[in-house]
Design goal:
Strand content: 25-35%
Distance between the termini: 20 Å
Low-confidence stretches: none
Helix content: 10-25%
Amino acid sequence: MRYKITVEYDGTHLVGWQKQKDGPSAQEFLEKAVLGFSHQTVDVFGAGRTDAGVHALGQVAHFDLAMDLSEYKIMESLNALLRELAAPVSVLHVEKTTDDFHARFSAKGRGYIYRILNRRGPSPLLAERVWRVPYPLDVDAMRQAASCLLGNHDFSSFRGAGCQAKSPVKTLDKLDICRNGDEIIFTVEARSFLYHQVRNMVGTLKEVGNGRLLPANVKEILEARDRTKAGISAPACGLYLNKVMY
């Protein structure tokens, strides 16, 4: 029986989604939890490989078990064991699915949000969950600049070092920027992304917001296809895998 799960996690102290030797991961915690209640060693496959420090509100994953249990039983068992493991991971939803479903390869799109706290004073409540920028940012200018990134482009200027994608060409379906009180929230959607693409775009758009770049410069940066021409990479703490579309 194949089970599809929706997962939330705080990535602050995780090395990311994927299992690694140098620290705990969301994948590792989930596999331990499945083993704990089923006594079966399984691989848990995720829809996206979030990096160290990146959070998830709606990561999707799947695994196979040689038993047919109710979705409620699976969810309660997983969450009970995740609490025992003191894992910053929670299972929000479980459903039985078909054998041909794959959390990663069946996905038709992924959505991220990025949160900037745009105020002078720091927030002890949001530390490690937002990027605090203490000087004013012009959201209208950032929106204007972001418009040129929509659509199908070579995103080499926003491609992180070590990216393993075969092509730098991606189609950006959505890039909305809104202000909610002291927060500026970026909502980004595409079928798939290059390594660090969202963080690199946000870092560059922030430079527009503070006046160091003009909106027209972002189009020039995109067309340069050169990572050194773009802005800094925004820190991982403000990034959330928000949803996966199927």
